[in-house]
Design brief:
There is one protein chain. This protein has 152 residues and is mostly helical. The chain contains 5 helices and 3 strands, in the order ααβααββα. It has a domain of 101 residues: Up-down Bundle (Four Helix Bundle (Hemerythrin (Met), subunit A)), CATH 1.20.120. It has a 3-stranded mixed beta sheet with strand order 1-2-3. The longest helix is centred in the C-terminal third of the chain and has 28 residues.
């Protein structure tokens, strides 16, 4: 999988586009495994930052989150420039940091709300619920790409 530029076959795309977060983010279905890894790294960093702000800010006023556009062409293209080992290390680190953030959010903090420039208001509990499905969606995407490679 290290050097592959493989993406999903059409039947797999139809299956995934109807699940989880993909109906609103179907552009992610054209990604290669490297692009998916880069996205999971970036999104883990962004969600960790959002959750950290919720933990750090003591006010009940809504927090303003910076925007994150997963389909930004420059962002997606940058994933191809990283050496494989560096990309894998960054993914592992970002995912571990995200896991730590999620487990650190108290039940009281789960009700806190932040506002992004894209998507509007979002509470910590909504971020946590989304994350599980988001990770699963992309894991399934990677499994389908791998299955298509091994079947060929």
């Amino acid at each position: 999988m290290k050097a592959t530029g493989a993406t999903l076959v059409e039947t797999s795309c139809h299956s995934l586009v109807q699940r989880g977060h993909f109906p609103a983010n179907s552009g992610e279905l054209d990604w290669t495994p490297r692009q998916i890894m880069g996205h999971l790294t970036d999104s883990a960093r962004v969600f960790s930052m959002h959750l950290q702000r919720i933990l750090d800010e003591m006010t009940l006023e809504p927090l303003d989150f910076p925007s994150f556009e997963p389909l930004d062409e420059k962002r997606v293209a940058s994933y191809a420039k990283l050496p494989w080992d560096q990309m894998l290390g960054e993914l592992i680190h970002a995912q571990a940091e995200l896991h730590s953030m999620v487990t650190a959010v108290s039940s009281a903090a789960m009700r806190r709300v932040g506002f992004g420039t894209v998507g509007g208001a979002i509470a910590a509990d909504e971020i946590v619920r989304f994350l599980s499905g988001h990770q699963d969606d992309h894991a399934t995407q990677l499994e389908m790409i791998l299955a298509n490679l091994t079947a060929a």
